[in-house]
What we know:
- This protein is of the alpha+beta class and 260 residues long.
- It has a domain at 75-195 and 214-235.
- It is built from 8 helices and 4 strands; from the N terminus they run αααββααββααα.
- The protein has a 4-stranded antiparallel beta sheet with strand order 1-2-3-4.
- Strand 1 and strand 2 (68-75) form a beta hairpin.
- Helix 4 packs antiparallel against helix 5 (120-146) and helix 5 (120-146) packs antiparallel against helix 6.
- The chain is globular, with a radius of gyration of 27 Å.
- The two termini are 35 Å apart.
- The model is unreliable at 240-260 (pLDDT under 50).
Amino acid sequence: MQKTHKDNPEHSASVKKPSFFSEALVVIRRFKILLVIIGILLVDQLVKIWVKQNMHPHETIGVVDGFFQLYYIENRGMAFGTTLGAGAIPKYVLSIFRLVAIIAIGYYLVKNIRQGKAHKGLIFCMGLIFAGATGNLIDGMFYDFIFDLDPNVAWNWAIDSNENFVLDEFGNPVMRPNGFLLGSVVDMFQFTVTWPSWMGSGLAGKEIFGAIWNVADASISAGVILIILRYRTFFKKTDDGAGDAEIKQSSATVTFSDNK
Length: 260
């Protein structure tokens, strides 16, 4: 009976367990996208916190004259201010949808990174979407607890199903529902480029892209656009016929070798 390496105490003693730092390096190398996600989240949240603490509601700061500015607003919905309706229920639905999407994307990322089958570009794009969705979800989850609601700012007022402000018996605005998952998303970036004066269809002088957005919105948009543009590369199908031919050729070679 032969002794295996497991039965040999000298061999077991000579095998050293990898250190914590070497294991951490392995994880970082395999999950490089984590660094991208963490970086986007940090920039997104730092910019939002700076805006809330240093800018007044609806204040603008010019960055590039006639092209780009900071404009502080808050919205209750999705990217670029899109909403699902008024009240707490649509906000809960939106926040839960974000949470489910984040969990699904996170699962997809971990699974494909471990298997090593997905295109690295696709992993990068999914990481951008994951980071952006998480960044905006953080606002909704925690900002109502971190920052006070200003009763003098319209985006903190409740609205009804017709998008009208809700007033109390004295005619004063009622505060919007607030708490966990009910916080508004902070936006601050805006392009100010306008259509030239000769443009028809009533577009002359109007902003080409007037939406106000944040780092998280940009991250989501970039991820989605890159996936659309690189769809064929990311989801390239293997030629099953060629694969079958290779298998048959390999089998024939093995059979010929055995018959020699």
